[in-house]
Design goal:
GO biological process, one term (chain B): spliceosomal snRNP assembly
Organism (chain B): Oryzias melastigma
CATH topology of the largest domain in chain A: Methylamine Dehydrogenase, Chain H
CATH class of the domain at 71-126 in chain B: Mainly Beta
Shape of chain B: flat
InterPro entries (chain B): SMN_gemin7, SUZ-C
Radius of gyration of chain A: 19 Å
Strand order of the largest sheet of chain B: 5-4-3-2-6
Largest sheet of chain B: 5 strands, antiparallel
Number of strands of chain B: 6
Order of helices and strands of chain A: EEEEEEEEEEEEEEEEEEEEEEEEEEEEE
Number of strands of chain A: 29
CATH topology of the domain at 71-126 in chain B: SH3 type barrels
Distance between the termini of chain A: 27 Å
Order of helices and strands of chain B: EHHHEEEEE
Structural class of chain A: mainly beta
Shape of chain A: globular
Number of helices of chain A: 0
Radius of gyration of chain B: 22 Å
Region (Disordered) (chain B): 1-21
Structural class of chain B: alpha+beta
Number of domains of chain A: 2
CATH superfamily of the largest domain in chain A: YVTN repeat-like/Quinoprotein amine dehydrogenase
Oligomer: heterodimer
Strand content of chain A: over 45%
Strand order of the largest sheet of chain A: 2-29-28-27
CATH class of the largest domain in chain A: Mainly Beta
CATH architecture of the domain at 71-126 in chain B: Roll
GO cellular component, one term (chain B): SMN-Sm protein complex
Chain lengths: 329, 128
């Protein structure tokens, strides 16, 4: 019997959720951080969506948020012209890095020793977190606000996507531009998968996959609606995307066929990410919520419980809910 | 007719009273480095730790008593950007993120009730 996807809604934010990121898998599970226009990024347990804490301190909308691999540190980028680094176990602010304009993107290197920031001042900045008094290295070149900046190729190179409709690859040591991709419209999102060196880019209704080292196009597909974010499954068999029509789409990566679409959000989907184990994906929306979706619908994982056909209809359901109590529009 | 996947419960939402990061969670206990400077030093002995902890308790108690003594008194706040304002102190919140004050004298007028961000404050003085 076919099972219908039950998304888990994580509430708590009061404004649109614009970015989210998962940590790696730690001895305590994996974690999820969400960036919100209400200025209060939140940390959640990745497999259940349970709230762990809120990072308090930013004075403006938080546009980007990230966790380091072992989820001990968090970094956030905000409209108050600062990027902040946090101890994500205690929730304390550890560092505040002043910028000259709105900061949009933050990301740690794999060893958590350096932080890359980018934003509306069109500069990429690399901070040495073990030497915070030193001025950051700055890379200029983009002609407009930078939306996203990522480390790639084992932290030896940097990828940046900006409103000047380009994605640029930079060498970290020489700080030179290595390659540029130009598009006809602004890129809405960029995600990097180290394993396989794949870059997932979305623009307009297109979801495109590039080789992250050569910036050569691998393949593309058009979705039914403008897409704001896409994420590739760790095993590269699926990818998911969400955008302006409020739905989440699931595609097969080999055939590029649309497999499923899910309704649930009450506003455009701004970001979507697969968990590090690929068992679920999280989406953040204009409606102020995060939703967790199962990759294998019906499987027992996290808060989802697989029920065999014989158990349905039996009166042993004191502990289970048939469906999450949702208000249907 | 597809049945929705059953769920054990809904994800827990934020606690309205605190910012979270439960100090009793297994992760916190395992990972949170104690902030005692001596215990971070290699080979810290029990006595030094005790002394430091005692000093910390004394300072903390003094700070809390200071906040109590300030209630309803006129306090002058020295803040960043060379700003000095005077107000009648009300109270602080639990994490000392904000100070609630009344009759805040600012260059653009007197604010009847206000919240001052404690991270903007460098120092404050009052007459006991």
């Amino acid at each position: 019997m076919a099972m219908r996807q039950t998304p888990l809604t994580c509430s708590g934010h009061t404004r649109p959720v614009v970015d989210l990121a998962f940590s790696g898998i730690t001895p305590f599970g994996y974690f999820l951080i969400s960036a919100c226009k209400d200025g209060k990024p939140m940390l959640r347990q990745g497999d259940t969506g349970d709230w762990i804490g809120t990072f308090l301190g930013h004075k403006g909308a938080v546009w980007g948020a990230t966790l380091n691999m072992d989820a001990t540190k968090a970094a956030t980028a905000a409209a108050d012209f600062t990027a902040k680094v946090w101890d994500s176990v205690s929730g304390d602010e550890v560092l505040s890095l002043a910028h000259k304009h709105i900061v949009k993107s933050v990301t740690f290197t794999q060893d958590s020793n350096h932080l890359l920031t980018a934003g509306n001042d069109k500069l990429l900045r690399i901070y040495d977190l073990s030497n915070t008094d030193a001025a950051p290295q700055e890379i200029a070149g983009h002609g407009a606000a930078i939306k996203k900046a990522l480390w790639c190729n084992n932290d030896k190179q940097i990828l940046s996507a900006a409103d000047d409709k380009t994605i640029r690859l930079w060498d970290r040591t020489s700080m030179d531009e290595v390659k540029t991709l130009t598009f006809d419209t602004t890129v809405s999102s960029m995600e990097y998968m180290a394993d396989g060196e794949i870059l997932v880019i979305t623009y307009g209704k297109t979801i495109a996959f590039y080789n992250a080292l050569s910036l050569e196009l691998i393949k593309t597909v058009e979705a039914p609606a403008p897409i704001n974010s896409a994420s590739l499954h760790p095993e590269k068999d699926f990818f998911v995307a969400g955008g302006e029509d409020f739905k989440l789409y699931k595609f097969d990566y080999s055939t590029m066929e649309e497999l499923e679409s899910y309704k649930g959000h009450f506003g455009p989907v701004h970001c979507v990410r697969f968990s590090p184990d690929g068992e679920l994906y999280a989406s953040g929306s204009e409606d102020g919520t995060l939703r967790l979706w199962q990759t294998a619908v019906g499987k027992t994982y996290g808060l989802w419980k697989c029920v065999l056909p014989e158990d349905l209809g039996a009166d042993n359901s004191e502990q289970m809910y048939g469906s999450t109590p949702e208000i249907k529009a | 007719m597809a049945t929705p996947v059953p769920v054990l419960r809904l994800p827990k939402g934020p606690d309205l009273n605190s910012r979270g990061f439960d100090p009793n969670s297994p992760r916190y206990i395992a990972l949170c480095r104690t902030t005692l400077a001596t215990s971070e030093a290699a080979g810290a002995d029990g006595e030094e730790l005790q002394q430091e902890q005692h000093a910390r308790s004394v300072l903390r108690e003094r700070f809390l008593r200071c906040l109590l003594a300030m209630t309803n008194k006129k306090v002058r706040f020295n803040m960043h950007e060379n700003v000095t304002v005077e107000a009648t102190f009300g109270s602080s919140d639990i994490d000392v993120l904000n100070f609630q004050v009344s009759d805040l004298h600012t260059p653009i007028g007197v604010q009847k009730e206000a919240l001052i961000r404690s991270q903007d404050v460098i120092s404050f003085t009052f007459d006991a």
